[in-house]
Amino acid sequence: MTINSGSVADYVPADQDVESVGKWRILKNIAVISVAFLLQFTAFQGTGSLQSSINAAGGLGTTSLSAVFGAIIISCAFIPTLAIRKLTAKWTLCLSMLCYVPYIMSQFYPQFYTLIPAGCLAGLGAAPMWAAQSTYLTQVAYIYARVTQQPPEAAIVRFFGIFYLCWQSAELWGNLISGLVLSAPHTNETDASDYTLCGANFCASKLKDIANLHRPPDREIFTIMGIYLACICLAVILLIFLLDPPTMYGEERGGGKVSAVKLLVATFRQLRKPNQLLLVPLTTFIGMEQANFAADLTQAFISCTLGISEIGFILVSFGLCNSLFSLIFGFLTKKFGRIWILIIGLIAISACYLIMLLWQPSPHQKWMFFLICCLYALGDSILQIQINGMYGAIFEKNKEAAFSNYRLFESLGYLVTYALSTVLCARTKLISALGLLVIGTVGWIVVEWRVKSSKSFESNKLDETKATHAEVYKVIEG
């Protein structure tokens, strides 16, 4: 979550008549963007959760997802700033969302020459879409702060909180749709001996030996994708007709203070900072663990053991728990602090990986799949929120460059995991991710120690300065 810094004057022109903009109209715009992203990612996340199973042959599904995140890495460098300057945030949002349509449409005829280019287009649209969302929400938050006479930071946190609560629930709705459509079983019951090929023992080279991974009927897949297409079209329609133009809130074409080239240079310069380098492993792990969830948990555990028709219903528990935990631990952070909450998240995700490594999945232990999803959601929600917040707190003076690095290495984690999905077996990927988590945890501990030491040094220096001034005053008075 990227929250821009700055004063009200940086975002609201002096001649802007903020009193003419009602606060309810601003809240309407927040609701429109939130619902639009909910619909958009109901479609995309629902499609992504099925890729490793419905397009398993030749690793087509995971390869297409690696194309999405590879394109995001390229897109982050130049497209967002240029698009928002030329089109404004509203029309950047609309056009970026339409970039996802070919990816959904290619599911009707999934081939490497249809899915891969469509995945690249979706990835190129993703970076400007998220940048435009952040720009628009920040812009209207500053206007809302002036209208309601409250600190801008409070309005920004409130608006981003509403948005992310809606966005995270997309996982729930997307999987619920696929679960309802694919509810009927389509394969013969797998022999008990076949279950030894599932879980951590799963290898893409043994797909033909697993009956539960046979592709469902095209009719049902086409029904799901038709619903997802309708969701994206509705999202764009909502933005076109109900979202106020950003010119109402002071944004103009050709605006923007940081050029794409300067941001790119600042992004790589940021890597020279020790704290940024130390956070790279944990940031990369965040992308890796989300890709492992979408590719390995769905295919190697759920589909392999229970069948593709069970993916949607089981992953509903993940979406529900993710939204719930995000809300709960967002409040608990204020009471207990970042460190203790992040420790809980690291323990949860580590425990989840150890369970997946040691447990042999069986259809007679269906409750275990729900437990793993909820535990995974606990770790994922905490890591995403706390690391985002940590970036904002530690790199307060270089937020744009820092969050650009966050998106870069998170996307790199996605890309590497999906790209190696058909090459490595599940056990190897799980062990590799767990190893990166250990390295990332050590890096985070060092960063926390450095930050604490820096604050202690500044505090001692301030105390010494005050003491020196006191001595000077005594001498003067004497």
Sequence-ordered SSE layout with sheet pairings:
Blueprint: H1 8-11, H2 23-54, H3 60-98, H4 101-105, H5 112-148, H6 152-168, H7 170-181, H8 218-242, H9 260-270, H10 274-306, H11 311-336, H12 338-358, H13 366-394, H14 399-419, H15 426-477
Helix pairs in contact: 2-3, 2-5, 2-6, 2-7, 2-8, 2-10, 3-5, 3-8, 3-9, 3-14, 5-6, 7-8, 7-11, 9-14, 10-13, 10-14, 10-15, 11-12, 11-13, 12-13, 12-15
Can you offer a commentary on this structure?
The chain has helices at 8-11, 23-54, 60-98, 101-105, 112-148, 152-168, 170-181, 218-242, 260-270, 274-306, 311-336, 338-358, 366-394, 399-419, 426-477. The protein is mainly alpha-helical and 478 residues long. α10 packs antiparallel against α15 (426-477). Residues 1-15 and 186-193 have low confidence and may be disordered.
Helix content: over 70%
Number of helices: 15
Order of helices and strands: HHHHHHHHHHHHHHH
* Count of β-strands: 0
Task: Please name the defining characteristics of this protein.
478 residues; mainly alpha; 15 helices; disordered N terminus
Briefly summarize what is shown.
The chain is mainly α. It contains 15 helices and no strands.
